[in-house]
Specification:
Elements (H helix, E strand, L loop, with lengths): L2 H39 L11 H15 L4 E5 L11 H5 L5 E6 L2 E7 L7 E5 L2 E2 L21 E5 L13 E6 L3 H4 L3 E11 L11 E13 L4 E23 L13 E2 L2 E21 L2 E24 L7 E7 L2 E10 L2 E25 L2 E24 L9 E7 L5 E4 L11 E2 L16 E22 L3 E27 L13 E6 L7 E5 L1 H7 L2 E5 L3 H4 L3 E20 L2 E24 L6 E24 L3 E12 L10 E5 L14 E5 L7 E14 L3 E24 L15 E25 L10 E12 L18 E11 L2 E10 L2 E6 L5 E6 L2 E11 L8 E8 L6 E4 L7 E6 L3 E9 L1
Parallel strand pairs: 4-7, 27-30, 31-34
Antiparallel strand pairs: 1-6, 2-3, 4-5, 6-7, 8-9, 8-44, 9-10, 10-11, 10-12, 10-43, 11-13, 12-13, 13-16, 14-15, 15-18, 16-17, 17-20, 17-21, 18-19, 21-22, 22-25, 22-26, 23-24, 26-27, 27-28, 28-29, 29-32, 30-31, 32-33, 33-34, 34-35, 35-36, 36-37, 37-40, 38-39, 39-42, 40-41, 41-44, 42-43
């Protein structure tokens, strides 16, 4: 799909759907009011209409939005164990003002109102959760959608919302068995595959999903039990073109590719999730609820390709032709390619427990306690294995021609057979890492290990009132969170080095095609098996830049809050909502290493630091309930988002120049470095919101909202004067000056973020009975920011901000048959991607429009009553993921395609 087609489709989707939604709102209002009037004339024959499937999910979400005292968006399960999408992130990303960034084709992290995932917190049943990522942003694919009953996204906080985010707060909720009120047993199974098949030799293209949910009540409704289990084996594929970058050619006028790393990726994601809830209400005055969640997550990923050092590898460019300032074709002769057989393994476990007790003491008093604990244990194995025609300076080279296609991908034509194991051997074709391994490294192993643990206790007392205030709640929450990252890295040296060594025949799996970039086949082997067999010596990387990647961060947060709930009238208009404040005391600290140098010259020292600070966070939410199911909401709040944990690390990679030891000028200090900042304070903002909402019972609504966030601070990398007293000099003469310039994250000037959001959910039956069963959901938002996250580059936007976001879902559901197609669009944005050394890079991502669809049938009577059949297609148009650099779409860095994923399955509810 071309970029122009995607853009045109996005504009048609936005403009057309807005017009339709407004037409249905106006027409539907008159039709709904007429229907209500007719019903009022004869209420003697009342029949309960049981809504199921797509419409049940929509009505549940509308009910949650309408009844909330805050401005929220919601997703509700269509049935037991059945959210609208196969992943939570995809469901959330369809909500107004929200969007997702794809990772390997899967929606994984969420941006709310143009702010990156770092500004959003995730809760499970109202309790803050740890993250399998390196920072705070929750990776939602860790939580099976089959085990959730709803997700509520708070766009405005209230004083009682603990763990609130600056952008928003996503609360994932599991079913409450006593409120559910009946016995239910549901099972589901799905089979899935990708239409581009298994791209890598020795991998699978097919997977499955199985789930079971059980809800029941005992002891005359005093004891409730909910159990759920979800298993997933999901394969996903990718054809990935990657460019090193674009220097200029010899003329200095045209950009030309500096190097390339095209490869194909095959992955298998396995996850087992278990949920359990026990509710005990022996009397009307006391309820005790115990929640448990467990998730075991394994992701096995294989990447095979050829890395091609071109202009930046010293290879001359010949026969070049250029267009629009870019070399679009030419030849490179003497290319020494590096055949890559790489792999990424992730093994992560999440455990979460929560225990809530509520006691109604009488006379309007209610006491609440809540204890919670969650923990993540994650180990990655990021493995690189190199092979080629010979070690650096030896072996055959390749002569190749190339063309740049209309999508910015470089397509090559090679003369070397990279699939011949007699030609391609385990070696270091480019001599990388030669300062540590003689002749160069033959691969690399990065094995970070993360433990993230959060313990919290909350106590609250509520007093019911009248005369304008329905209740007042006071509470206290204390939490302790520790996150430790231990990073181990090794160079791989093949046994037999410095000679090039034949690939063991037992490890060869065949060949893998790189035809998508014109390179033919490459020899394929199992790199994990080679490491396990002892084919390599593992030589620990002793360099300072590796030592400073390990760190520990601890946070102790005490929150006292007071919230008053409003239930009053103003000029005859009912007014509900709340006002109050939080008083938040934070005690943060970090321990890590300061290190300098490489190899045997590395010197290091232990470092620590921290900060204590206090925040006052007032908030108010007002809802004016106007006639004809209209609402006008206003909200104002002071919010914060804690810094990224890797920014809070005490690590420092420092340098000492003994030739400047006698200098007294800070600009010529012998000391320099870069690192984290354990004294870093949060992002803080004042937020203002207004929202108009028109409802049509539980079936439909239209809303128009505007927001303004005044960020008082933002976090920038800045060079600041730092005291290096106590840092080692490596045996060199002591300096006169103990201060130097350190580049580190600092709190700096903020800015504004503002936007508008429109949303509508309309069944067409509100317009005319002829269209009964058809419906549409649509939302669009536009967001602008004055924040400059990089003072050195005013054109760089804040991470995660797409100015335009739109979502459109059309559906039909009647007589058991259902069909739905959804399109989610976001304009270009600055996204976070994995870079060199498994680090993080920010890169411009092209706008994209992702289409999913499903069709199903549910049997409502007969011997198959309760059975539903389903067919789904994700990424229906095979939308690519494209990144580029220097704000120049011609300079494509990544062009990734993932194919279409098909799922067929069934659900059965007893």
């Amino acid at each position: 799909m071309t970029t122009e087609f995607s853009r045109r489709r996005a504009w048609l989707m936005t403009g057309g759907a807005t017009g339709l939604a407004l037409a249905f709102a106006l027409g539907g209002s008159a039709h709904a009011q007429a229907t209500a009037s007719n019903a009022a004339k004869d209420d003697t024959n009342v029949e309960e209409i049981v809504v199921t499937g797509i419409r049940k999910g929509i009505e549940g979400a509308i009910t949650l939005k309408k009844s909330s005292s805050s401005i929220v968006e919601a997703v509700s399960a269509e049935d037991i164990g059945k959210l609208p999408d196969v992943s939570i992130a995809e469901s959330i990303a369809r909500l107004p003002g929200l969007t997702a960034q794809r990772l390997d084709g899967r929606a994984q992290v969420i941006s709310i109102r143009g702010l990156a995932p770092d500004f959003t917190t995730a809760l499970l049943n109202g309790r803050e959760q740890v993250s399998t990522g390196d920072n705070r942003g929750v990776e939602f694919d860790q939580y099976p959608s089959e085990l959730l009953s709803a997700v509520v996204v708070y766009k405005t906080p209230d004083a009682g919302l603990i763990g609130q985010g600056l952008a928003g707060t996503a609360d994932m909720r599991t079913v409450r068995p006593l409120a559910f009120g009946k016995r239910a047993l549901a099972v589901g199974a799905r089979y899935e595959w990708n239409d581009i098949g298994a791209l890598n030799a020795g991998t699978k293209a097919h997977g499955n999903r199985v789930s079971i949910s059980y809800i029941d009540q005992f002891m005359d409704g005093k004891l409730g039990l909910a159990l759920g289990f979800a298993h997933m084996e999901s394969p996903y594929q990718a054809e990935r073109f990657n460019s090193w970058g674009y220097p200029t050619d010899a003329s200095g006028k045209n950009l030309v590719i500096g190097g390339a790393k095209p490869y194909v990726q095959s992955s298998m994601l396995k996850r087992d999730g278990v949920m359990a809830t026990v509710e005990f209400a022996p009397t009307d005055r006391f309820t005790s609820t115990l929640d448990g969640f467990y998730s075991k997550f394994k992701n096995h990923q294989i990447q095979r390709g050829v890395e091609l050092p071109l202009v930046w590898g010293g290879v001359p460019l010949t026969n070049a032709t250029a267009s629009n300032g870019v070399v679009t074709s030419g030849a490179f002769n003497g290319v020494k390619g590096v055949v890559r057989n790489d792999g990424n393994n992730r093994d992560a476990t999440i455990k979460s427990l929560g225990w809530n007790n509520q006691f109604k003491a009488g006379d309007g008093w209610t006491l609440t306690s809540d204890l919670s604990w969650s923990k993540v244990d994650r180990t990655d194995m990021v493995l690189e294995s190199y092979s080629g025609t010979g070690r650096s300076g030896a072996g055959a080279t390749d002569n190749m021609t190339f063309n740049v296609n209309g999508d910015g991908e470089t397509i090559f034509k090679s003369t070397l057979n990279y699939a011949d194991p007699n030609t391609i051997k385990l070696t270091s074709p480019q001599g990388w890492g030669g300062d540590i391994i003689s002749g160069g490294q033959d691969g690399y192993l990065n094995q970070p290990h993360i433990v993230d643990e959060l313990k919290a206790a909350r106590f609250a007392v509520t007093r019911a009132l009248d005369d304008g205030l329905s209740s007042v709640e006071a509470g206290f929450n204390y939490s302790e969170r520790t996150k430790d990252l231990v990073n181990d890295e090794w160079f791989l040296r093949v046994k037999g080095s410095p000679a090039s060594v034949a690939i063991p025949s037992s490890a060869i799996l065949g060949s893998t095609s790189l035809a998508f970039v014109g390179l033919g086949n490459v020899v394929s082997y199992d790199p994990f098996a080679l490491v396990k067999s002892g084919a390599y010596d593992l030589v620990r990387n002793p360099n300072a830049d590796v030592l400073v990647k390990s760190w520990g961060v601890e946070e102790k947060v005490a929150v006292g809050y007071l919230k008053a709930n409003i239930d009053a009238e103003l000029g005859g208009v009912p007014v509900t909502g709340n006002f109050g404040f939080q008083l938040v005391h934070t005690d943060q600290s970090s321990t890590a290493l300061g290190a300098s140098g490489t190899g045997t010259g590395v010197i290091q020292t232990k470092l620590s630091g921290g900060k204590k600070y206090l925040d006052f966070l007032p908030s108010m939410n007002l809802q004016f309930r106007l006639p004809n199911e209209q609402s006008l909401r206003f909200a104002v709040a002071r919010t914060l988002a804690r810094p990224r944990m890797d920014q809070m690390r005490a690590s420092t990679n420092f340098g000492y120049d003994p030739s400047k030891s006698s200098s007294t000028n800070i600009n010529f200090s012998p000391w320099s470095g870069s690192g984290g900042n354990p004294a870093l304070q949060p992002w803080r903002a004042n937020a203002y919101d207004v929202s108009y909402e028109k409802y049509f019972g539980r079936q439909a609504y239209v809303s128009l909202a505007a927001f303004y966030k005044d960020l008082k601070t933002y976090v920038y990398d800045q060079s600041v004067i730092y005291d290096f007293t106590g840092f080692p000099t490596g045996g060199n003469p002591a300096p006169v000056l103990r201060q130097g310039l350190l580049t580190t994250p600092q709190n700096g000037k903020g800015g504004s973020l503002k936007g508008v959001e429109f949303a509508a959910s309309m069944p067409f039956a509100l317009l005319t009975p002829v269209l009964d069963g058809f419906g549409v959901q649509f939302s669009a938002s536009y967001t602008k920011s004055s924040i400059q996250p990089n003072p050195g580059d005013p054109s760089q936007p804040i991470p995660g901000l797409s100015k335009t976001v739109a979502n459109l879902t059309g559906y039909y559901e009647k007589n058991g048959f259902s069909f739905r197609v959804s399109d989610r669009y976001r304009s270009k944005f600055l996204g976070e991607v994995t870079g060199f050394g498994n680090g993080r890079n920010y890169r411009q991502v092209k706008g994209e429009s992702v289409v999913d669809s499903q069709i199903g049938y549910t049997f409502s009577d007969g011997p198959m009553n309760g059975l539903s059949l389903l067919v789904q297609v994700n990424n229906l148009t095979n939308e690519p993921f494209v990144t580029y650099q220097n704000n120049d779409p011609r300079q494509v860095i990544d062009y990734q395609t993932y194919g279409r994923t098909y799922l067929v399955g069934l659900n059965y509810k007893f």
